[in-house]
Each structure stands twice: as C-alpha cells, then as structure tokens.
Amino acid sequence: MFNVASAAGGSSSMLMTILPFVLMFVVFYFLLIRPQQKKQKQRNQMLNALGKGDKVVTIGGLHGTIVEMTDDIVVLRVNDVTKLTFDRSAISHASAKEAAPVAKA
Questions:
Q1: Domain spans of the chain?
Q2: More confident residue, 20 or 97
Q3: CATH class of 51-97
Q4: Which letter, b or e, does each residue of 7-32 get, where b requires 16 or more Cβ atoms within 10 Å of its Cβ?
Q5: How far apart are the first and last CA of the chain?
Q6: What are phi and psi of 11, to 5 degrees?
C-alpha cells in the first residue's frame, strides 16, 4: 500500500521546488538588500557627524555652511546675508569644514 521509495522521492521533489526560491532570496540579499543597508548606515553616520561650520550640499544642489543645528533642522548660510532652513535629511553630503578666516595685518 505505502511505498517507502515513493515517499523519499516526494520529499526530494519538494526540496528541488523550494531550492530555487531560497537561492534567489540569497542572491537578492547580497546584491540588493545588504549594500543598501550599508549605504544607509554610512549616510546616518555622516548626518550625525555634521556640526557648525561644515560645508554641505543639499539634495537640491544648494551649497552652504551650517550656522545652526537642532535634532532635525539645519540652518545654512548661503552667502553673507542669506540663511536658509532645511530638514537635516535634505543634506546630500558634506564638503569640508570651513577654514578659519585669516586676519589681515
């Protein structure tokens, strides 16, 4: 009635059906998910390391220097008189710290 050989063949068939899906998930993880997580972690570290005097570029391409900061708001000085307020998440990347002004003799 019940054949042991056919039962063993059935579990092997089920394993061969599931194996490609597991393999696809592993490939997606290493090619898509993991690099995106690393990039997000680096971005969060960059945003947390920002401070007054850092030159930054916003997502829209505006260049400015950080004048004031709170937890989620950044005030940028664009030129001598213009200050603009942005969300901290609107910062694309930091350029460099602003050099200290040189005193004229």
A1: 1-49, 51-97
A2: 20
A3: mainly beta
A4: eeeeeeeeeeeeeeeeeeeeeeeeee
A5: 105
A6: -70, -35
